[in-house]
Design goal:
246 residues; mainly alpha; 3-stranded antiparallel β-sheet; 65% helix
Amino acid sequence: NVYASFNDHYKYMIIISLLEKTLQFYDQMNIQYSYDEYYSKSYLQIEKFSITELCEKLDLPKETVRRKVLELEKEGVITRNKKKIIIDRKAFPFVKPDNQIKFSAKYIYLVSQALNKDKVYSKKLDQKTIEDMIKKNFSLSWRWFYRMQIPLIIGYHKFFQDLTTFHIWGTICMNQVLNVNKQLYTSDDQPALDYFRTNNILLDNMGSDAGISAMSISDMTQIPRATIIRKCKYLIKEDLIKINEN
């Protein structure tokens, strides 16, 4: 979803970093907006916009951030006025987290189920209640989400030197984890794999026989196949993935 917004990971990161700034302001001023209230606005204004601040936050070169901001301006997504920046309503469909709210609610629901099972947490939650709670307290909930998401993605960028490379590696890794599940889970009551056991299984290359093709990665990520092949060559060179005869 990060890539699909603008066919560019970094433009999305710039926009959500600016949005996070407004959410931080609302939080500090003790202002809360629901999902519908937040997206009913025709534009969002960010005070004291600074390329340098964005560079520091995203750990990107100034030239890259400046170029991406100019591209966003040309696309009519943002407008700059001296030290202020306006995010137009036109950008909202790209960053409206309809799918992500569902994913996050399901994740919280599954964690709550695990906590219920271990008798750590007694309240029973259902996915729809969690979704409604996120939407009702949207400006606060989504500030927390961005505070988790932005540093996490920056960490991937630092390790892989590039977010597209991480996205491709992550897709290959996810495919391998799914293949591990198919091999290990013979019944519904199979115990959940803990962090260390899962890592050891992946490091031992279990589930790697099936693999995934460059075309499949392109279909899943919407990243062009030529880019996939180029980035995979880098990942092979860095010994982060392997390729077989298929």
